[in-house]
Each structure stands twice: as structure tokens, then as C-alpha cells.
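Batch manifest, entry 17 of 40.
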Amino acid sequence: MASPDNYDLRGIPPRILEEGTVGPFEKGFYLPYPPLSDLAVKDDACKVPVPLVRQMPFGFAGTLSVAIGEEEYDINLLKTESFLFIASVRLFAKENWDFRMDAHIRRPRLFKEHMARFDEEFASTIPSNVVALSYDLATKVDGEHYPGMRAATFVPWAYSVLKPFKPTHILAEWYPDSDNHAAFYKALGEGASTLEAFKSTWSHKHFSQLGELIPNISVTDKYISEDEKAKYEAYSPSTTVRALYKI
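Output type: C-alpha cells
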């Protein structure tokens, strides 16, 4: 994550700059949010009422119990703001933080500048004053899904939670260790066009229910450090794939 010192800081809340909170979930301590204390839902964590989460202040957290049959699973909910993000929400399994679902509203003035540092050509196509909603979903680890956390319901639920921030676009951004990235290259290998391959992915199925894909697909080389090569060597090629949806 880039340092705030390298950006134009006008308009960033002074408290955020004082805390130096660049990423959305860097803090180790969150205040408890009483309305979410011991909240119980059935089958899916995204059954938490949207108004309850909208009213939740930044820097707070709650733990809910998700009942599936006779089993119960504890899932934490966080809501934060940070340097690059106006607002972020996260659901993650209390017993294994690798299982998580994040959604972010990116600061409009910094979004294009931030994208240019990774993909200058793609950034040049981003319209002015874009308020981008983005997702980071990790509901499957080592081939296993975590009960009670469903990405398919999180996508529209998180959009509803963050809708008061008036997102205008959804950013799709896929890396070599994602199912979307693998599906994209599988379709390309089977003769699909770039646009057709993009539309074959899981995310397109769900993002397209919220907005219309802008057919400007960016596929760029992704720098991979020596430490990451072993992790990514099973995925080919090492690229980042990006596109925007107009809500």
C-alpha cells in the first residue's frame, strides 16, 4: 500500500492523516457496537439488517452468530474509514481470519491517481469524479468454503450498506490467485475474446446485476516478488485484470 506522503492530501480528514491509517483494516482495536452484540441470524451472515450496519460508526466492531442447522458460527463485522477509502465493511470468520468478505468505497479524488500507479493506461480511461465500489472476497481457502459466508449475497448486501455514499461504478480487479483470474484465462484459452472471457467469470454474473460493464478490459503485467513466485507459479500468466461497471 502506498504511503500518504506520496499523494495530494487536500480534503483528507485530519484525523485519518494523524492516525496514518492507509489501509482499511490496519487498526488492531475496535470499539464494540452494542446493537451487534450477540446478534443471531440463520444461514447467512448477510441477513444482518442493512440499516443496522449503516448506522454503525467507523472504528466499531460486532460479533454475530450464524446458525446453520444445529451448528453455530461466529462472524465478526467491522466498519472503518481510511486514507484511500471513504468507508469499508468487512465480515470475517472469528475462528479463521483467512475467510473474509470486504467492500470499499474509494475516495474519488485519489482513485484515479492510485490506479495510475499500477495501471496508467487503465487509469487514463477512468471518468472524472468516479465513486468506485470494490470488493475483496476470500470465502474459499484451500478449496473449502466457510459456512455462513456467501459472496453471492455479500455483493448486493454490501452495495446496499454503502449505497448512501453514492457509488457510481464498481471496480473489478483480479489477481493470479483468484478464481475469476483463472476463469478469465480458461475462457481465453478456449478461443473467447477478451470481453467474452471477462463475461464468463463469477464476478461478472453478480456485478452485472448492479451495473453495466464498460467494455474496456485492462490486462497488465503484475510485478511478483521473489517471495511470491512460489505462491503464484501455478497461475499463468502473472497479470492483473481490471474493468469498471457503471452503476
